[in-house]
Write a structure and sequence with these properties.
The complex is a heterodimer of chains A (112) and B (115). Chain A has no helices and eleven strands. Chain A is mostly beta strands and 112 residues long. In chain A, strands 2, 4, 5, 6, 9, 10 and 11 form a seven-stranded mixed sheet that branches. Helix content of chain B is 0%, strand content 49%. In chain B, a hairpin with a 2-residue loop joins strand 7 and strand 8. The chains are: A mainly beta (112), B mainly beta (115). At the A-B interface, strand 4, strand 5, strand 9 and strand 10 of A face strand 5, strand 6 and strand 11 of B.
């Protein structure tokens, strides 16, 4: 069966520090991968998606970047965190041609 | 562009009350529609879905019917429980505007059920 792993679960980082959040999928190949952010009291905003290794599309301009170094690995990064980067980050995957996602358990990031 | 609008919350109900959370959408094609649920401190879980007009999705006592004529996908449950307290997200995936499977979410509706 397919599973998605996301870590860490919680993270507290100072302003200006770097960030790396990792997401991996097991049990499938060539998934579509997505990063969403949920800010406090707000809905879900799509940040990045990827349809293949090295292929990254950005939905909104921001302080973050994404990479897909391996087929089932999706990394969200920042060189210098801002206070406004605080939020709940969710990774999701979808098998190509199938409707709907499966989400990871999320990472709660607090920038202080 | 495609969009999803949900009723604002929080919605506060007593146990065994009837629940309706309204969701309407705008899409260029014939989208698939979803309801996701987020329990406190957790990620999102798929609750139910419908892929074409007049389809009814159902799960755990929740139901939603895909109404193309009113562009709606309202979530209903006949008798809510305290354990249903969560944030509910309506979402769509429109293959005519994007072949990447992107989901567009509503802003979420918080449901609080009191004993």
């Amino acid at each position: 069966s397919q599973t998605i792993h996301q870590w860490p679960a919680t993270l507290v980082q100072p302003v200006g520090s770097p960030l790396s959040l990792e997401c991996t999928v097991e049990g499938t190949s060539n998934p579509n991968l997505y990063w969403y952010r949920q800010a406090a009291g707000r809905g879900l905003q799509l940040l990045f998606y990827s349809v293949g290794i090295g292929q990254i599309s950005s939905e909104v301009p921001q302080n973050l970047s994404a990479s897909r170094p391996q087929d089932r690995q999706f990394i969200l990064s920042s060189k210098k965190l801002l206070l406004s980067d605080s939020g709940f980050y969710l990774c999701a995957w979808r098998r190509q041609g199938v409707v709907g996602y499966t989400f990871g358990s999320g990472t709660r990031l607090t920038v202080v | 562009g495609d969009s999803v609008t949900q009723m604002e919350g929080p919605v506060t109900l007593s146990e065994e009350a009837f629940l309706t959370i309204n969701c309407t959408y705008t899409a260029t094609g014939y989208p698939s529609l979803f309801w996701y649920v987020q329990y406190p401190g957790e990620g999102l879980q798929l609750l139910l879905k419908a892929t074409k007009a007049d389809d009814k999705g159902s799960n755990k006592g929740f139901e939603a019917t895909y109404r193309k004529e009113t562009t709606s996908f309202h979530l209903e449950k006949g008798s809510v429980q305290v354990s249903d307290s969560a944030v509910y997200f309506c979402a769509l995936s429109d293959p005519y505007s994007s072949n990447t499977g992107k989901l567009i979410f509503g802003q979420g509706t918080t449901l609080q059920v009191k004993p």
